[in-house]
Amino acid sequence: MDYLKRSEELFETSVQIRRDLHQIPEVGLDLPETTAYVEARLKELGYKVQHCGGGLVATVGKPGGKTVLLRADMDALPMKEESGLPFASTSCNAHTCGHDFHATMLLTAAQMLKENEGALQGTVKLMFQPAEETFMGAKSMIQAGVLEDPKPDVALAYHVTSGNGPLGLIAYRRRGTMMNSSDNFKIFIRGKGAHGAYPESGVDPISISAHIILALESVVAREIKSTQASVLTIGKVVAGTAGNIIPDTAELYGTLRCDSSEEREFILKRIQEVAQGVAQTYRGTAEVSIVAGTAPLVNDPEAIDAFTGYMRELPVENQEEYSDMHAMSSEDWAEVLQLVPGAYMFLSAGFTDGRPTYNQHHPKVVFNEEVLKVGPAYLAHCATRWLEEHGSEM
User: Could you tell me the pTM of the whole model?
Assistant: First the structure.
């Protein structure tokens, strides 16, 4: 099948699906409207659908051979949309990261793969995932068995990007860390409340918090090699009810980003030690809890070489590759890539006509729907070609 031509023929359908999903954004592990929409569409196409860890799984092709896993995340962000689009979300959530595009691309790829099922030399497994933004969805689906029965031999996922990048631009990293790990953490500090005029009668958790913040900044500045890319940020401090009252407790919320698992493990250990040590120094206590996290994302070089080779076979206009991508942001597809050799790439969905553009997670961000002519074709073509070259290997 000429997947690029077929994807272009299905473009209007893809646009409608994307706009439908765009208007029902949901967050976290529980996406009832979104999963119901995706499940209904898959069943219309003739798929048997399984619920798995808050997401959906379906397969197409011939059982018993090799299996390619294709993934799309479906969740949105808890923010108001200000895009001005006629189909903009009116809820408190918004698809400002482009996951509505990902789900659409995989649904359109699912249609084309079903139409071409007789020619597939193995199995294609479709993974529709929740909770990527909270780094809980991939883990949830892995724990529920998404990587079993059948077990994938290779895996592929794409992410659209906004801004002023031209359509046709592909970004990835062949070797080494492409996206940093992420760990969201909370530090609960307990002191002893007192009158603001008599601080000596209490233990000030706000003062302890300030010392912990400064000490944690020194961990990255003085204990990590300057050649390593790591960021530790405290973005939220919760404490107190009035300016003349020393509270009993304080809370710090932060995020850690690292480009290696070793660095991640070291700094997480130091967060515990520093928080507890500083709190004890000032007669308080501190408890550290990891709210959510994911590993660094590292592509498999052989998978990258195979999939980018297949992508070049499609006559996509202005196709261009940037092969040394490194982002401080994070992606829980990394959890799958720790267990299955695979690839992750960015597809530009930007504009080059001079209009104002915004990055992902901005309330005014707008993506170029023309990418829906290409993304589904890449997914279907890469899966089909990989099975042609590897499906008979035992």
Answer: 0.93
